[in-house]
Design brief:
about 70% helix, mainly alpha
Length: about 500
């Protein structure tokens, strides 16, 4: 005869077969065992329940987790904040925001772990402002609370609130860790002056011992054009590099059109027997692309097919980018790569749309690919809009451009809104609709050199050189320094 705790484990796993009989039997058994006077048996059953729930979270097993919650509710088990927290975690990891919020609301005595779990759930759905409202309800936020919210704002492209939280931590003397700095550096995005200030704090505080912080600095120095800074960090941390460090530096060389050095780094990774993952392989493809080495890229593609990585969406994006940029008529090859990937992600769809939009003759295909992506259930992000707006610009089709503009306004673009606005300004300018271009420009919350150049080019292209010069002379220069001054604290 099975022990009662073992029987519960068996029945809970059996429950996923969706049998009403098993549901009734499981419910009866768990009530029977947990109500016994023998406390050791009850505790043993609770431990089994907890262990299965933790497994569900690790494996994102939503069906079994929901079944456990049903038993938990129906079996009259005394309310447990511990179990409720794990239900919030489960639904958060499975991207079920509504269920996570319901589990949080049903938590008898929410603690800081409860709040951190639900804040993380909202962060995953790009809703940092709601996450912040929940953060403000925590009696005593801990380090995880701050780090989660800072990362939420960073992922959403909101620099000011992330830096505000960071400054608040400094003022209150709250201990920080590497995740704090990685988050706020990511939030700094293209504010190089702020990144340099944060880098100084990293060095003073000894946070350069965190490999994640160094990886983030390499990434954002490189993205902002400071390859030498990225190299200085990479070659100065030989003892604490991980695979992400190597990948970040390979990407950095690729971004700066030093593909040969990127390939040398990849070969060194192989020589050192370091783990090669999809991010490494995609970075190597970027190196072949920047070298315009189609022959080498094809050989590497053959290697990917042998290892099975060619079906990975991230690697697939690198292949599509390679063929679209290095091969005349390469979109046929791109389409073949795309069709071999079972579950294309948003990045891969964007790369396909970008590939089509780079060829003026295929701009209609870019629009078709965009609509197909929407039908597949993907919500366009800033990259999607920039690529499809470029296609509208190629077609000199302001009517289709206005439709995309309307869709962009209705969408909650999680980051890089300025890039979408710049693409729209360029599109309206190219199509001769300078009135709408100027109205959009004037309504933009921020501008950069791309914004200015689009307007100036639009005026010049349509024979309004005087206005172009006047416009240039009267534009307030874009500030190169940061509005944030951390040293004043």
């Amino acid at each position: 005869m099975l022990k009662e705790g073992t029987e519960i484990v068996f029945l809970l796993h059996s429950l996923v077969k969706d049998s009403k009989f098993l549901m009734r039997r499981c419910s009866y058994t768990i009530q029977h065992v947990l109500r016994k006077d023998n406390k050791s048996v009850g505790q043993d059953s609770f431990q089994h329940l907890r262990q299965i729930l933790k497994t569900c979270i690790a494996q994102r097993d939503l069906l079994t987790g929901k079944s456990i919650q049903t038993l938990y509710i129906k079996s009259l088990i005394p309310p447990s904040t511990y179990l409720s927290n794990h239900f919030i975690l489960l639904y958060s990891k499975c991207r079920r925001l509504s269920a996570a919020r319901n589990a949080f609301s049903a938590t008898p005595f929410p603690n800081v772990f409860s709040f951190n779990a639900i804040i993380s759930a909202y962060a995953k759905e790009s809703l940092p402002h709601i996450a912040h409202q929940l953060f403000d309800q925590i009696p005593q936020p801990d380090l995880v609370s701050y780090n989660t919210l800072i990362s939420a704002y960073a992922d959403h492209g909101d620099t000011a609130p992330a830096v505000g939280l960071f400054m608040g931590m400094r003022q209150m003397g709250i201990d920080m860790d590497g995740f704090t700095f990685s988050g706020v550096i990511t939030a700094s995005c293209n504010d190089v002056a702020l990144i340099r200030q944060l880098h100084s704090l990293v060095l003073v505080g000894g946070f350069d011992s965190y490999v994640s912080v160094n990886n983030t600095l390499i990434t954002y120095y490189s993205k902002n054009g400071y390859l030498d800074e990225a190299k200085r960090i990479f070659y100065g941390i030989d003892e604490i590099r991980d695979e992400v460090t190597w990948n970040s530096m390979i990407v950095a060389y690729g971004q700066h059109h030093e593909g040969y050095k990127a390939l040398v780094l990849y070969q060194e990774m192989v020589h050192r027997d370091l783990r090669i993952d999809m991010f490494t392989l995609a970075s190597v493809l970027t190196a072949f692309t920047c070298l315009e080495d189609l022959s080498g890229g094809r050989q590497f593609h053959a290697h990917l097919i042998k290892t099975g990585f060619h079906q990975n969406p991230h690697v697939g994006s690198g292949l599509v980018d390679l063929y679209s940029k290095c091969h005349r008529g390469g979109m046929l090859g791109c389409k073949k790569v795309f069709e071999e990937i079972p579950e294309p992600d948003l990045v891969l769809w964007n790369t396909m749309i970008s590939g089509y939009s780079q060829n003026m003759e295929l701009s209609e295909d870019a629009l078709g690919c965009f609509r197909q992506m929407q039908r597949a259930g993907h919500r366009p992000d800033d990259g999607s809009f920039v690529c499809v707006i470029s296609a509208c610009s190629n077609l000199s089709s302001p009517s289709q451009g206005k439709q995309i503009h309307s869709l962009a306004l209705k969408s909650d673009i999680p980051s890089n809104q300025i890039s979408v606005n710049n693409a729209l300004v360029a599109m309206y300018s190219k199509c001769g609709n300078l009135h709408d271009a100027r109205r959009l420009f004037d309504g933009m919350p921020e501008h950069n050199t791309v914004s200015l150049n689009s307007m100036i080019a639009g005026y010049a292209q349509h024979g309004r050189g005087t206005e172009s010069i006047f416009f240039s002379a009267n534009i307030v220069s874009i500030r190169s320094t940061s509005e944030f001054h951390l040293d004043t604290l």
